[in-house]
Amino acid sequence: MEGMQFCYPRPHWFAQALGSSYVESWIKASRQPYWYRPATLAVVAPFDHRSIDSVTGKHADVDKMHAAGLMREMALFTRAHGVRAGVAEVYWSAGLTALAEPALRAVRDAISQYFDMEANACFTARVALSSSRRSALLPVLRECGVTTLHTGVTPAHADLSASIEPFIDAARSNGFRSIAVDLPIDQPHVSAETVRDWAAALCLCRPSRIFLTRRGSEPAIRPSKGLDDADLRLQRNWQALFATLIAAGYEHIAHDAFALHADELANAKRLATLVPRCYGYSTCASHASIAIGQGAVGNAGPMQYQNCRDPVSYAAMLDREALPIERGLLTSPNDLARRAIMASLLTNFAVDVEAIEQCYWIDFRAVFRPELVALEPLERDGFVEIDTKQLRLTPIGRFACGRVANLFDRYSQPLERARPEQDGA
User: How far is CA 244 from CA 88, 258, 261, in A?
Assistant: First the structure.
């Protein structure tokens, strides 16, 4: 899914039995108490490559249809919730920003109509770097209140400087607060030297944030197996990229994220308030994420849900005046504790054991005994340090913090342990 960064448990574990009516009851219940405020609002639309260059309005009818569906869903959500939800953060997908200007403005007006957006809300929009509409699109996004532009490098950008420099210059001239760029590190047929060249070119352009991205999730470490040769090669590539970015003045704020010292995410890292979310990092905790759009993922307190991924089903539920929710999962206290541990490892590179025990009323070593046993080889190899108060990643262990965090994923680990050994593994 576009933009998916951190979601635990992941949507493929959601149950279709917990559909629209069940999740809607949680949305209604979230009116009281006021822990529902503030919320994160994620608005996504299918990415249509034709729309990137549709400056003539050739696909205006399709864009209008997408916008109308999003607006209807916002109205249905507010009706189910009963009051206008407060919003502190907004995310727009690249599929949404590819829509024509009238559709974008209609969606923005609907947000103002159905939600109470805070004056200093963080507003992130993903934009395709290849869009020829850039000169017309960026001023529109700024007028809509977008504060952060997020784009990504692809192998198609052979001459990265020629692609990224005009984008960043245009973003700065339009007054965006932050500029974020995804740097893929494991693309097929792209050498490690090319990735390092991309990183060096990005550093010269000085975007506010650089995220190292992978095609898939990080592989879990099997107990007593440690890191295999492929993982070690990837780790060495990460180390080389880290050295390049740190030397250029970027701070390592999370396992895959770097930011300039003055950026608000770097400041949140120093204040220990940086939080990973489905669609990026946040500077503050939020108890609800409102998902609008086909396939979008959100939550109301411990109830996580995903909208219909199939466009026909999505439209049919809107026609029935029902929230287009396909599946959900009511997370347990154990899930919430694991999510907190994984999030802390990804952003703080450590876990406050005493805080987890006090927040979730558990004995950390008793509840997570299998995970601590799995960490013993990594502790011997110098990746982690564990005592009664903290679980800490060492400087070398930070290169593998995503894999360490995955050890606390109780859904994926049984599958990993059950996987048959491969020849040569």
Answer: 34, 11, 16
Sheet containing strand 390-393, strands side by side: 350-352, 390-393, 384-386
| CA-to-CA dists, residue 279 to 133, 149, 287, 291, angstroms | 24, 13, 15, 11
Q: What is the pLDDT of residue 10?
A: 86
Which residues, listed in sequence order, are joined to residue 288 by a DSSP beta bridge? 300
Residue 222 reports pLDDT greater than 50: no
Residue pair 326/1 in contact (Cβ under 8 Å)? The answer is no
For residue 149, what is the DSSP state? E
Give the side-chain half-sphere CA count within 13 A for 240: 16
pLDDT (mean) for 366-391: 92
What is the C-alpha separation between 254 and 281, in angstroms, rounded? 9
380 is written with which tokens?
Answer: 């011997």
The per-residue pLDDT for range 298-348, each reduced to its tens digit, is 998 888 999 999 999 999 999 999 999 999 998 999 999 999 999 999 999
From the number of C-beta atoms within 10 Å of its C-beta (0-12, 13-18, 19+), residue 422 rates as exposed
Which has the higher per-residue pLDDT, 386 or 57?
A: 386
**In angstroms, what CA-CA distances link 420 with 222, 417, 425?**
12, 8, 10
From the list 49, 50, 45, 42, the residue with the least C-alpha distance to 104 is: 45
Q: What is the pLDDT of residue 19?
A: 67
b/e burial code for range 255-290 (CB count within 10 A of at least 16 → b): bbbbbbeebbbbebbeeeebbbbbbbbbbeebebbb
The pLDDT value given to residue 420:
44
- Rounded-to-integer distance, Cα 91 and Cα 89, Å: 7
Asked if residue 17 lies in contact with residue 329, where contact means CB atoms within 8 angstroms, the answer is no
Reported as a single tens digit per residue, the pLDDT across 337-354 is: 999 999 999 999 999 999
Q: How far apart are CA 381 and CA 181, in angstroms?
A: 33
